Amino acid sequence: MQANATPPEKVIEISQVTTRFGDHVVHSGIDLEVHRAEIFAVIGGSGSGKSTLLREMILLQRPNEGSIRVLGIDLQKLADADALALRQRWGVMFQHGGLFGSLTVTENVGLPLREHTGLGNRLIDEIAAWKLAMAGLKPEVGAQYPSELSGGMMKRASLARALALDPELLFLDEPTAGLDPDSAAGVDELVLKLRDLFGLTIIMITHDLDLLWQVADRVAVLADGKVQGIGSMAELAAMDQPAIRKFFDGPRGRAAQELDQDKPQALAEAHKPIEEPSSKPK
Ligand code: ADP
Ligand code: MG
Question: What is the model's pTM?
Fold first, then answer.
């Protein structure tokens, strides 16, 4: 990098965040920054506080201590009216989709537009159709109900809804969890496309090593309430803290690295979750 290069614009700045549930300390002094138009991932074992951190970034929960700035705004000092405006600048795809079962896919995708804009129904439907296409769904899916969709289609419909208000930030909680390897591989391409075509900043939580190797610019490893390491996957792979090593050692970690070097036979192995290795005895 040149000495006089412009520093990256920080779209999220987390400083000394501590979160407790009763006596249980989930975060004890988390620091991290996300830069504009990067694909940033948070990884860590089950219960390490990834979803809680995400919920704190999107105003669903408050840390006990520390500060979180999103798009330059300090979340702790935010008035309710400003919170409403800020929420419209990000989209969230929750782990379990969160679509309304009584609404069609088009109606689900149009919902944020109905709530937050004064647009007419026809225009809302047209925008919803465009968002479905962006998320890689065929137009006819719009008339279907969530119960008629496969897991992969459900995730894409949820993504289309997250994109409804043209957000600057996109939060993804486990975008490939529960998908078969082929559908999961489609998510890799989709995430890259959204960043490259629309300049979105993407913050994702994932256990999917393949997704991490294929798309993440930087990755933060959470364990024991702290960020244990932060960097590209290649940089993390060269670190030797045990909390980081466990993501790279073992058959799944190695398969994902091989896949990064264009060995497609590693695909299925790489997409297996690494969260609870003990649950899948060999
Ligand atoms: P992860 O997403 O990394 O698996 P979470 O952020 O969901 O972890 O949870 C971190 C820890 O905080 C877990 O031990 C969980 O049980 C606890 N926790 C999360 N939310 C709450 C809550 N609302 N009340 C009490 N404990 C919670
Ligand atoms: Mg979680």
Answer: 0.87
